[in-house]
Amino acid sequence: MDKLVISGGKKLKGRVSISGAKNAAVAILPAAALCDEVCRIENIPNISDINLMCRILSDMGANVKMINNNTIEIDPTHMISNSAPHDLMKNMRASSYLLGVLLGKFGEANVCLPGGCDFGVRPIDQHLKGFSALGAECNLNGGIINVRADKLVGAHIYLDVVSVGATMNIMLAAVRAEGLTVLENAAKEPHIVDLANFLNCMGADISGAGTDVIKIRGVKRLKGTTYSIIPDQIEAGTYMAIAAATKGDVIIENVIPKHLESITAKLEEMGIDLTIDDDAIRVSCSGRIKKCNIKTMPHPGFPTDMQPQITALLSTADGTSMVNEAVWDNRFRYIDELRRMGANISVDGRVAVIEGVDKLIGAPVKAVDLRAGAALVLAGLCAEGTTTIESIHHIERGYENIIEKLQNIGADIKKISCEDDKSGESVG
Ligand code: EPU
Predict the structure, then answer these.
(1) Which residues touch 253 (CB under 8 Å, ≥6 apart)?
(2) Which of 22, 177, 282, 293 has its CA 20 to 30 A from that of 266?
(3) Ligand 1 atom at shortest distance from the alpha carbon of 299
(4) What is the Å distance from ligand 1's center to 27 Cα?
(5) Contact call for residues 340 and 305 (beta carbons, < 8 A)
(6) From 117, 138, 292, 382, the catalytic residue
(7) pLDDT, tens digit, 9 for 90 and up, residues 287-309
(8) Cα 124 to ligand 1 centroid, rounded to whole Å
(9) 19-48: string of b/e by CB count within 10 Å (b at 16+)?
(10) Whole-angstrom distance, CA of residue 173 vs CA of residue 53
(11) How are beta strands 293-295 and 320-324 bridged, if at all?
């Protein structure tokens, strides 16, 4: 079991380049299987969730070729299976996108209930509601979901909950349906727009992505294309919060500032200096940050995937802040770990009340999920002394080269394996 060891208290300075968006890439890779030609996808983040998705597609007969660290070619012409490999699927939420893809491609999909970060109940009823409206029968048997249709026909679908996953999955199935699908109360995240743009490059006819009504006119055939994925909004936000927490001065490069507006607005409210350029944001911070209240919401609201990092940042703010998690039932499991580092945070249901402390103190902690892990990295980097973080596989699911990127801006962070750990107990 690998761990991260961080010696905190360094002011970070320099430049960080943001990788491709994980939550776009995990949908776009399987979407490539909808055509019968080769797709070349660029700016793919080199992270474990992507490796897993590539293994799933290979296992189903697709030819997945790594051109370099961030470019993949997918040739789905020999894919014949409508069943996704269950052992690989159960670890990944985005594996549910294979339901829409296989239903669109073969008229049938067998996929096990998806895994992913544990934030309490993670239903997929809205995905299934969409597939049913398109004419599919949906059955759950022994943890495997079977969706099947003789013919998919466009429909008018209203989502009861704004869901990224359901919006993407319904788009994936509807691109090959007969006629027009109108999806109302759709999610509007940048990765929804990226998936729609990719599908349109393949010859789909989708309009309205990025608004809450998406129209998808089904087409008979999709063709191969070359496509470059957008930068990761959450990775960018994480480095912005890290720059501020360490009282640093960091230029975050390769970003789309429009995608970051809810985050930049809140950082400015905390008194953090931002210089926003066309594709870069400079973040600098000297004094203590100001308290701030935040409520997570679907895009364009403040993203839930930044909630743990921002809570960690506010743990040393001047005054009392409140963070309301309005998307997930149970996304505060990491707070106990921050408390080990001296944070003064109480949680009541979906609300965390953060009494800012003067400083955090390094401690042994454990990443309970991906963004919780990122929050602990932030906490470790600004804390006094040494922090060790266990279960870093969660962090590796979503942050490309996080250690090197942080070392390049002056952080004292390294990964140790179990053996190193035994030989070097002085580390802790
Ligand atoms: N929901 C339902 N029914 C459904 C689907 C969702 O009630 O059929 C509810 C959920 O319980 C939740 C809310 O709707 O309360 C939003 O869920 P959504 O479907 O939007 O989430 P998701 O598609 O499962 C994606 C990201 C998550 C991110 C959420 C919200 C991917 C692979 N995952 O999950 O990202 O938190 O959207 O923005 O895109 C992460 O990257 O760390 C991460 C967890």
Answers:
(1) 15, 16, 17, 18, 279, 280
(2) 22
(3) 38
(4) 13
(5) no
(6) 117
(7) 899 999 999 999 999 999 999 99
(8) 9
(9) bbbbbbbbbbbbbbbbbeebbbbebbbebb
(10) 18
(11) parallel
Nearest CA residue ID for atom 33, ligand 1 = 23
DSSP E strand stretches across 59-217: 63-68, 71-75, 108-112, 137-141, 144-148, 156-158, 180-184, 205-207, 213-217
Pocket test for ligand 1, best of 28, 50, 97, 122 (most atoms within 8 A of CB): 122
Distance (Å, rounded) from C-alpha 35 to C-alpha 55? 19
Mutate to test the pocket of ligand 1, among 164, 324, 395 (most ligand atoms within 8 A of CB): 164
| Token pair listed for 110 | 């067998």
Is residue 132 within 8 A of residue 126, CB to CB? The reply is no
* Residue 21: closest CA among 214, 228, 225: 228
Q: Which residues contact 143 (CB under 8 A, 6 or more apart)?
A: 86, 112, 113
- For the CA of 191, the closest atom of ligand 1 is 39
The CA-atom distances, in angstroms, between 280 and each of 84, 193, 404 are 39, 21, 19
What's the pLDDT band for 425 if we cut at 50, 70, 90? Answer: very low
What spacing in Å lies between the alpha carbon of 134 and ligand 1's midpoint? Answer: 22
Q: What is the DSSP letter of 150?
A: S
Cα angle: 288, vertex 292, 298; to 5 degrees: 135
Q: Is 39 one of the annotated active-site residues of the chain?
A: no
Predicted TM-score (pTM) of the model is: 0.96
The answer on pLDDT for 117 being more than 70 is no
Q: 349: buried, middle or exposed (CB in 10 Å: 19+, 13-18, 0-12)?
A: exposed
